[in-house]
């Protein structure tokens, strides 16, 4: 079997992505800088966007879905009066308007875009239509008709109004919410058009700006040609927001062998969760064993780490 190139590193690296590069390019840079075998990311950021991009090394790639399911916080700047085909500053102007809503009018439009909503994704997105990427079709001059998709927006606030053409918002959301679509839709709801000129991600699941590093500031030299693995956070960091149950040594052994545990035996230790399908983090002391779910009176392993 062919040996994979690079070091077998495991853990999370939270980087502050600069504007003008893709998430995939940042993964490639990190892979080279750390000489790592396997690297993925926990949620794409548009090239224009900056901010938190969690990178998963090795075994951490198993926990990517739990990062992507976590709460995200964004701040974006909406330029009013000008629509663009990409819904951000990288696109071409498609429509203009002289209408400039007041602060009160902008705020009045937000409740309809908050909660469980149906959102039409931007045509410049990675969604597939009949096997083709929507952005490829849009670039070729045949933008697809994308149907509305369910989205969850927990908080949508106007936080600053620098001038009549500009409004700055902060959004707290679940996965799969397009900030470019929110910007487009709040402008339309106010009888005008608009697009995003700046977008920054402030939080992803348990990761905040305080956790982020600038990849280009990692110093390499002849003595240290690759970044230190000590910069990586433990794989379990991604699961910090998930409620935990403490297991005995014998229970841990059973779980690691794929066996389900009786909920009756765990009753005094189980976290109080309203959602029966919510994942539970199995712990033995300070060690994360994996993720489980409650099912038919048992705690069953879903993902062993």
Automatic annotation (TrEMBL):
Residues 31-179 form the Pseudouridine synthase II N-terminal domain. It comes from Acetobacter orleanensis. The keyword Kinase does not apply. Residues 180-239 form the tRNA pseudouridylate synthase B C-terminal domain. Keywords: Isomerase, tRNA processing. The keyword tRNA processing applies. This is tRNA pseudouridine synthase B. It catalyses: uridine(55) in tRNA = pseudouridine(55) in tRNA.
């Amino acid at each position: 079997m062919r040996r994979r190139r690079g070091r077998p590193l495991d853990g999370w690296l939270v980087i502050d992505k600069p504007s003008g590069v893709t998430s995939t390019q940042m993964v490639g840079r990190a892979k080279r800088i750390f000489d790592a075998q396997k690297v993925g990311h926990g949620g794409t950021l548009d090239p224009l966007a900056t901010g938190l991009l969690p990178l998963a090394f090795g075994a951490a790639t198993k926990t990517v879905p739990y990062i992507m399911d976590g709460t995200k916080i964004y701040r974006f700047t909406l330029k009013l009066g000008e629509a663009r085909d990409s819904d951000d500053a990288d696109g071409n102007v498609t429509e203009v308007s002289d209408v400039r809503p007041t602060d009160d009018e902008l705020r009045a439009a937000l409740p309809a875009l908050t909660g469980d909503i149906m959102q039409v994704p931007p045509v410049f997105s990675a969604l597939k239509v009949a096997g083709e990427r929507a952005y490829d079709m849009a670039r070729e001059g045949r933008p697809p008709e994308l149907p509305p998709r369910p989205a969850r927006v927990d908080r949508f606030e106007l936080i600053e109004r620098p001038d009549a053409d500009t409004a700055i918002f902060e959004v707290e959301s679940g996965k799969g919410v397009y900030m470019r679509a929110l910007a487009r839709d709040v402008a339309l709801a106010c009888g005008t058009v608009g697009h995003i000129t700046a977008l920054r991600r402030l939080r992803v699941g348990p990761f905040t700006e305080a956790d982020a590093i600038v990849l280009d500031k990692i110093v390499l030299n002849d003595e240290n040609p690759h970044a230190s693995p000590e910069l990586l956070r433990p794989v379990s960091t991604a699961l910090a927001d998930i409620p935990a149950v403490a297991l005995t040594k014998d229970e841990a052994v059973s779980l690691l062998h794929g066996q389900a545990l009786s909920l009756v035996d765990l009753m005094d230790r189980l976290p109080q969760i309203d959602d029966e399908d919510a994942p539970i983090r199995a712990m033995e002391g300070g060690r994360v064993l994996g993720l489980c779910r409650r099912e038919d009176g048992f705690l069953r392993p879903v993902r062993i780490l």
